[in-house]
Amino acid sequence: MTTGTGSENARVMWSVISIAIMVLLVGDTVPSLGQQAGSYRPRTVSDGGVIVGQVTFSDPVPAPRRLEITQDGEVCDQEPKFAEDLVVGEDGGLLNVVVWLSDVREGKPWDTTSPPALDQRGCRFTPHVLIVQAGETFEVRNSDGILHNVHTRGTENRPVNKAQPGFLTSVRVRLPLPEIVHVRCDAHDWMSGWITVAAHPYYAITDGNGNFQLDNVPPGSYTLELWHEQLGSQTQQVTVTTGSDTRVQARFASN
Amino acid sequence: MLRETGMTGQRVPKRARTNITLLIAAAVLLLPAGAAAQTAPDGGQVDQRDVVRRGKRLYRRRCVFCHGTNGRGDGSVSRYVFPHPRDFTRGIYKISSTTTGQLPTDEDLFNTVTRGMPGTTMPGWSNFSEQERWALVAYIQTFSDRFRTDEREEPIAIGRPKPPLPESVTAGRRLFIEAECWKCHGMLGKGDGPSAATLLDDWDFPIVPADLRMSRNWRGGNRPQDVYRSIAVGIGGTPMPSWEDALTPDQIWDLTNYLLSIIQQ
Question: Is B250 on the interface with A (CB under 8 A)?
């Protein structure tokens, strides 16, 4: 490309302006980068407290929705299957709510004694909601002996789609960025699960009674975030003090 | 509180930042005096802007009707088009030579612009000059931050094709059945397997598996190395998964040879 001296000068001007703007932008974003997932600092927590809570569903509970099993019946249709996107216990406790501290900067180290694994079993994702550590590879199992695939759909993480034929009982997946990612098996369109890619160890999933617990939390004030796949998300402020339980009650309703 | 945690080590005081800015700006201002005869220090970047601008002009003339002004796949004719035109804003492309979950290479995008997407309404643009096609590649990358933020990976290794001897074709046919490729593509490769009717792409648009008898419709091309790549890394943003972890390179070549053997046209 040929350019005259005039446009050469213009180019130089633009270079200066663009570099100056870039420097300004980068300079301003440096501190906020520190707030990203990578900034969690593990340390020994000796003065921690516990957050215990229950999440309930306040509306009338809809009847369980039976899933239509359209193929591989001998493996997938051993027993009736119901949608797991809204499961409420007898006392109104809401199952499978992800609960986490969204602004914790340091605290207990990751517990590596039982690595998380997702299982494709009976043509369901088990557990329905899994917690994994951002950037760590985790295992996806196939206990069914038939073709599944593991297809993640996030907004932060790029999609991963790996075939898992019956003879491949284990495959490794890695999701680098914290977010809650939908996981599907395209071969069986009713299969649906969620992978919580966690930035730190203070994440929990509510059990069948809607109960959850976060332990060894350093004393301080935090934002507690709660997310449910159908009912959306909400936050609460919590204050943790050394050696005591902080009780939390949260309620979700239909949108 | 945070200032005491020791996490603020990276925090640059505002005044220091301004000083650094001034220093760099000054350095850049002074540089051209010494370097004018050579390439301008930032010349590459300015050139790149011209390239992007050129790509934008072409895009607005030719691509916008399907892929939309902002690359969201929502152009004026998009709803009459099947499969749905690709949304470029997430940086997810059907044809990539990189491992599943990675961005495609620039060459991948260039090849798709050149060859089009067989079996869809996306034509090849080989009537554009090479420069024009590279300009389009540069422009469509501006629709997704991923091309600026994510690390770019090298393509997977694709060795030499395995000769399509009968034993390789037979082994490939066995794999087609055992690995259950037929679940989507059908026993005869017609695209009518039991899962075919319920398939959705990553945007929840319905999508159909390729009819493997029609090699001219194979999205990623029908040369042996194209077929190998489509099996190994999958078709991005669609239900076609990567088989890299499930099959050995030798097995992927067998499968390739089998698929090439069932072509009818």
Answer: no
